[in-house]
Amino acid sequence: MTVGPAQIAIIILLIVLLFGAKKLPDLARSMGRSMRIFKSEVHEMGNDDQRYQDEQRQRQQQQGQISQTPASQQQSDEDFWNSPQMQPRYDQNNQQAPRPDNH
User: In sequence order, which residues have a C-beta less than 8 Å from that of residue 97 and are 6 or more positions away?
Assistant: First the structure.
């Protein structure tokens, strides 16, 4: 079922009769404002979605950096304890490490 020109004319005539000729410009103006507000809200929702996605990417990058930090920290700890300065010193006569003094 399609709406033809005669049916559109009847609908316009009914609107004029219901609202009156004086109120039609105000009605059209308020409809235009409503459409402008609606479009701006839809645009803002799109911007909010984009901001949310950007924040999610930043959080994921930060979490990736945080999760990588302990591995590098662990590697540097292993290097520290395996360094020659941290190895026990052996007595050349007994070939044993000296016992720590308990004071």
Answer: 88, 89, 90, 91
Residue type, 63: Q
pLDDT tens profile 17-46: 887 878 888 888 998 999 999 999 998 988
Q: What's the angle, vertex CA 80, arms to CA 77 and CA 86, rounded to 5?
A: 135
Q: Which ranges constitute the DSSP H helices of the chain?
A: 5-19, 24-82
Query: Measured between alpha carbons, how far is 58 from 40 in angstroms, rounded to an integer?
Result: 27
Domain boundaries in the chain? 35-67
Cα angle: 89, vertex 95, 100; to 5 degrees? 45
Predicted local distance difference test score (pLDDT) of residue 41: 92
- Stated pTM of the model: 0.39
